[in-house]
Structures are given as structure tokens and as C-alpha cells.
Amino acid sequence: MTRAGPRVAAIVLAAGRSSRTAPLHKLLTPDATGLPMIARTLRAITASRAGPVIVVLGHRAAEIQAAASIDRQAENAPRFITAPNHACGLSQTLAAGIRAASAYPAVTGALVCLGDMPLIGTDLIDRMIATFLTHPDRPGVMPVHEGRRGNPVLWSRDLFPALLALTGDQGARPLLRQHETGMARVAAGAEITADFDTPARLADFARCFADG
User: Which CATH number covers residue 59?
Assistant: First the structure.
């Protein structure tokens, strides 16, 4: 999708092994309509103001890309990349996405999304992007529900080098603790902390979106 002016990329992290739901892979699990979780997550992101949308693959990359491509928006089709060091932890998956977003000169920030958070809606994403573009001096934007922060988190391009320097399997948590007081906040619902990391939660997801 062509946009003038500053842009915010969306980086969707989808490289994990999903070991806690084995033998099922959570991102391939269908909801009540038959839509795989990764496609459901991308439906809201590709309908938003975010662009480009970069999906970072790793474990079972071909299967997840195929599932993600079932329901894409033609005008904002995601770009798929594979993190070469995804087995080394979440930080390396994030770094691959940040490097890809950095290649776009107009991108002034990146919204880091988790592939297993399909309840995040387009409205929240657009409000976070609007808040960031209104306050570009902030390190980023985070959603908050009843005083608790969650995902996704939007990061300023100024912090891309720090994101690239992260190590281990905890993503950007250390950086978030460091910059939390300066982050802009957007009110959100309980969906910002709702994931599907266990077999019981996958069973819950299979009943979601019964109305389409």
C-alpha cells in the first residue's frame, strides 16, 4: 500500500517452535471459522495503517507462510522473511524483523506483534500508530489495560540499534523496562495480555470468532 510521509512498520514474530502446545503448532490451529491463528492475527494487522507488514518465520516456515497467506489483504500483503538464527531465541527473530524494517527509509517506527495474539484488533493498532505519529519524540507506544502493559509494542526507529543488540529469548523486555516511563500509553482491553500458549487455551481459540 502506498503511503506518503512517515510510516510505521508492523513486525509479526512467527518463528517459534510452539513447544508448549506440542504436537500442535498454535499458529496453525484454526478458529471456529477454520482460519488459522496466524492468518487471524494478520487479518487485523494488514487492515491497519501499518506498512510494510513483515512476518518473521523460522520453525516450520513453509507451513506457517502457507497458513498466513490464506486470508491476506491484497492492498497490504505481508512480506515474509526467515530469521536465520531463530533457534537462538526471540531476540534474534526480532532482530531479523528490525533489520528488514530498517531498509525502508520512510519507516520511523515499528509495531512488534506476536503471531499468537489474534484478539488484537485493527482499531488498537491504528490508535497506537496515530499516537506515535503525534508524539514522534517518544521512545514508543505501549497498550495498557487496568494498569498492566501488554502487546503489541511500538518502537521508535531511534531504538532500532538497541533492539538489534538484544540477546537471549526474552525479546525486548529489558529495553521496555528501561524506557517504560517515556513511552506513550494507549488504553486497551484485556486482549493485550491474552495469548494461546497451552492446549487448553488452544481449545478456547477453536471456539473464537464463531460469528466470522
Answer: 3.90.550.10
Q: Which residue carries 488484537 as its cell?
A: 120
Nearby residues of 140 by Cβ (< 8 Å), 6 or more positions away: 109, 132, 153, 154, 155, 156, 159, 179, 183, 184
Cell of 22: 506440542
For the question of whether the overall pTM of this predicted structure is more than 0.85, the answer is yes
In a domain, 177, yes or no: yes
What DSSP element (H or E) covers 114?
Answer: strand 107-114
Our count of domains for the chain comes to: 1
Tens of pLDDT, residues 73-88: 657 899 999 998 887 7
The reply to whether 2 falls in a domain is no
pLDDT tens digits, one per residue of 159-197:
999 999 998 877 898 999 999 999 999 999 999 999 888
User: Cβ distance 98 to 110 under 8 Å?
Assistant: yes
Residues paired with residue 56 on neighbouring β-strands, in sequence order: 13, 81
Q: How many CB atoms lie within 10 A of CB 167?
A: 11
Mean pLDDT of 113-119: 96
Residue 110 structural domain: 7-205
The answer to whether residues 78 and 115 touch, using CB atoms and an 8 Å cutoff, is no
> Can you tell me the distance from the alpha carbon of 103 to that of 184, in angstroms, rounded to the nearest whole number?
25
